[in-house]
Write a structure and sequence with these properties.
13% strand, 6-stranded parallel β-sheet, 16 helices, 48% helix
Length: 383
C-alpha cells in the first residue's frame, strides 16, 4: 500500500547571481529529488525578500522558509512561526527567536585557518594581509579571525585593508614583499589583481592572492587565474533542506544548535602558483579558443588570456596536444566553417566573416589546402 506523503511548499531565498547560491540551490534540489515531495517558490535576490513577500507567503500557507535573511525582513521573520532555516548570519532582530529556526553556515573561521596554512606551506613570505568584505559582515570577520589566529600561532603578524588606508593599489605597494594576500571572496581577489596591475606588482612573485568560493567563472577567466578555497555549497544546500524538513515535521520544537560546514581545499591556479599545471593551462587555452575562434583571435590573444609567456604557452600546449595554438585556432574555425556550409545556405563571404576570417580568399585557400576540395564542392557533397 502506497504511503500518503504530505506535499510541502517551501520559499527559497538565495542570491543566484553568485556561484555559492547556485550551488546551494543544486543541493536543495538534490534533496527534493531524493524523494521529498516539496514544491518550491524561489526568490533570486535576498533584497526582494521583503515584509510584504514574507506576509504573502504566510497567507498562502507556506510550510517553510529556506533563506538568506536580510535586515529589512528580520523583524517580520522574528515574529513568524513558520519553520525557518537561515543560510547566512541572522540579522540582529532574529537572534531572539528561539523556536522552529535553525542556522547552517560555512565554517568561516576554519576557512581563514585553511588560507593561513596554505600560505605558510607555500613559501617564506615577508608579509601577510587580508582584504575584507566592504560591509565587514560576520562571515568576513570570522574568515579574518581564523586567518590571523593561525598566523599568530606561527609568529606571523597580519595587516587588514580598510578604506581609511587609502587606495588598495597604494596599500598593496606598501606591503613588504613577497606578500601573501587572502581576500574574503573571489570577486575581491579579482579586484586585488587589478589593483596589483595598477601598482605594477608581479603576481605571484611579489603578491600571491587567494580567494574563497572557487567561482570558476571568475577564477578561471581572470588574468592571472585565481587560486581559491572551494566550499562545498552543494552539501550545505542539501543539509539545509534536510534540517528544514526536520523542523517542518516538529514545528513547535526548540531550535537546534547552529551547524557549521567544514572548510574545503585550495584549488591552486596562477595567482599563487608560479606556473599553472599543464592540464589546467591547456584546458583554459582550449576553452578560450572554442569560445572565441570566430571572433578573429590570434595566438597572442590566447597567450594574454593565459597570463603566461608565449614560449611557455606554446611548449605546454604542444606537448599536451601534439599541435600548436595557431593550428588549434585554425582547426576550430574550419570546423565552424564546415558546420555553416552543411547546415545553412549563407554565402561563402558571410560564412567567412562569421567564422573569424577577415579575408575570404584566405579562407578558400586554407580550406582547399586542408581538405583537398573547394568549399562549394564540399558543400555539394559533405560526405
Amino acid at each position: 500500500m502506497k504511503r500518503n506523503v504530505k506535499k510541502r511548499t517551501v520559499l527559497v531565498v538565495l542570491w543566484l547571481a553568485g556561484s555559492a547560491g547556485r550551488r546551494q540551490l543544486t543541493g536543495i534540489l538534490q534533496y527534493i529529488n531524493a524523494g521529498h515531495p516539496w514544491s518550491i517558490r524561489l526568490i533570486t535576490d535576498p533584497k526582494d525578500f521583503t515584509d510584504e513577500a514574507l506576509h504573502k507567503a504566510e497567507a498562502d500557507g507556506i510550510h517553510g522558509f529556506l533563506v538568506h535573511a536580510n535586515a529589512q525582513v528580520g523583524t517580520a521573520l522574528a515574529h513568524s512561526t513558520v519553520p525557518t532555516v537561515l543560510l547566512d548570519f541572522p540579522p540582529p532582530a532574529l537572534r531572539g527567536r528561539k523556536k522552529s529556526i535553525a542556522l547552517i553556515l560555512d565554517g568561516d573561521e576554519q576557512i581563514g585557518q585553511t588560507a593561513a596554512e596554505y600560505f605558510l606551506r607555500l613559501g617564506n613570505f615577508a608579509s601577510f594581509a587580508f582584504v575584507p568584505d566592504a560591509q565587514n559582515r560576520g562571515w568576513s570577520r570570522l574568515r579574518e579571525r581564523g586567518y590571523k589566529t593561525a598566523l599568530r600561532a606561527h609568529g606571523r603578524p597580519c595587516q587588514t585593508y580598510g578604506a581609511d588606508k587609502g587606495l588598495l593599489a597604494d596599500w598593496l605597494r606598501a606591503l613588504p614583499k613577497p606578500a601573501a594576500v587572502f581576500t574574503a571572496y573571489d570577486l575581491l581577489a579579482q579586484e586585488t589583481i587589478e589593483a596589483c596591475k595598477e601598482a605594477k606588482l608581479s603576481i605571484p612573485k611579489q603578491v600571491a592572492i587567494l580567494g574563497v568560493d572557487n567561482d570558476e567563472l571568475i577564477c578561471d577567466y581572470a588574468s592571472p587565474s585565481i587560486s581559491s578555497i572551494r566550499i562545498d555549497h552543494e552539501t550545505l544546500g542539501f543539509e539545509a533542506a534536510k534540517l528544514l524538513d526536520r523542523l517542518m515535521r516538529a514545528p513547535s520544537g526548540r531550535s537546534p544548535k547552529p551547524v557549521f560546514m567544514p572548510a574545503g581545499t585550495v584549488v591552486e591556479r596562477e595567482s599563487t602558483a608560479p606556473t599553472a599545471p599543464t592540464a589546467h593551462l591547456v584546458a583554459r587555452a582550449q576553452n578560450f579558443i572554442s569560445a572565441h575562434a570566430a571572433d578573429g583571435i590570434s595566438v597572442a590573444d590566447v597567450v594574454s588570456h593565459l597570463g603566461v609567456s608565449r614560449r611557455l604557452a606554446d611548449a605546454r600546449f604542444g606537448a599536451a596536444t601534439g599541435t600548436s595554438i595557431r593550428r588549434a585556432i585554425e582547426d576550430r574555425r574550419l570546423a565552424l566553417v564546415r558546420e555553416q556550409l552543411k547546415t545553412t545556405r549563407l554565402s561563402i563571404e558571410k560564412i567567412s566573416r562569421l567564422c573569424g576570417y577577415a579575408n575570404t580568399q584566405r579562407l578558400k585557400y586554407v580550406f582547399k589546402a586542408r581538405f583537398g576540395i573547394s568549399m562549394s564542392k564540399w558543400r555539394a557533397d559533405p560526405t
